[in-house]
Design brief:
2 strands, 1% strand, 305 residues, single chain
């Protein structure tokens, strides 16, 4: 996300003034004087502001590739069962790390979605869907997000092509992440192929805070003082909360190193030898995803029966 873009999905960090010593190494000491909850909250703000933890989480997700070694280390962050400054600090640090880990997966999902959509948006959509195979890594890594997004995007690409809708992967992604009038996730299902998105398909979405070393899709209980569970789908039957309603999840401006990593435009997807028509880089698509996230889908879609 370029600094110049409006940060639609971002957290507004507290502007409280803390002594410079609080930011130096380890777990800083907070001088007492307030209530336990006030000290916990103060520690959380400082811990959550640790950009190095955030980008370590991002890098650990990015480096976890194709079912290989898992680099997640959020489970190593101490848990203090108390209401104190130290407990707040480590909880804030845990959230910063897991934000970075989850955001890398989320961005990879958007990138994979765009390429799956692109491949399936053509007259050969049926043959492609029959031949394509979803790969599920279950680790919340960048490649896990890419494959999850690709598998969901291919269904939307084929559906939009069949329905004669304009080619628009971003609009399709926003619709996919939205909910219907009853609060249920938007899904597409091809009955003759027994294949679709969400509960109709093979994709298991990585959920925030899950320890991928366990390879289990069990949501980790939020730490003290927080009651949210970020997800990349809408709320509804799966009891998932919309990202747009979760300002606690921070999409921080991309640092130079990450922008460089994403500034690529592959000619093909690792899931297909089909030549991609996308002219934008991965970075362009991430920027577009962030900038347009709050917009509603402009086209009413329908499930394919």
């Amino acid at each position: 996300m370029k600094t110049q873009l409006k940060q639609i999905k971002s957290i507004v960090l507290s502007a409280l003034a803390f002594p410079a010593a609080l930011f130096l190494g380890g777990c800083p000491y907070y001088p007492g004087g307030g209530t336990d909850q006030a000290e916990y909250d103060a520690g959380f703000v400082v811990g959550f502001a640790q950009d190095d933890e955030y980008w370590q989480g991002f890098d650990d997700s990015y480096d976890t590739v194709d079912g290989g070694e898992i680099y997640y280390s959020g489970d190593l962050i101490p848990v203090l069962d108390e209401i104190s400054y130290d407990a707040g600090y480590y909880d804030g640090t845990w959230y910063a790390y897991n934000d970075g880990y989850f955001v890398a997966y989320d961005y990879a999902f958007a990138i994979g979605f765009s390429e799956g959509y692109d491949v399936a948006f053509n007259s050969d959509w049926r043959a492609f869907l029959i031949a394509d195979e979803h790969v599920e890594w279950l680790d919340g890594g960048f490649s896990d997000g890419y494959n999850d997004g690709f598998s969901e995007g291919r269904i939307l690409g084929a559906s939009d092509y069949i329905d004669g809708l304009a080619y628009d992967w971003l609009d399709a992604l926003l619709w996919y992440q939205d909910v219907d009038a009853n609060g249920n996730p938007n899904d597409i299902y091809f009955e003759d192929l027994d294949l679709g998105t969400g509960e109709f398909g093979p994709v298991e979405l990585y959920q925030y805070g899950t320890n991928p070393h366990d390879l289990v899709k069990a949501i980790r209980a939020p730490r003290k003082g927080r009651e949210f569970t970020p997800a990349i789908r809408g709320a509804g039957s799966k009891a998932l909360a919309k990202q747009a309603e979760l300002p606690e999840l921070s999409y921080r401006p991309l640092i130079t190193e990450v922008q460089q990593e994403l500034n690529v435009n592959p000619a093909t997807s690792p899931r297909s030898d089909y030549t991609l028509t996308l002219e934008s880089t991965w970075l362009d698509r991430v920027n577009a995803y962030n900038a347009a996230y709050s917009k509603k889908s402009a086209v009413e879609r329908k499930s394919v029966k």
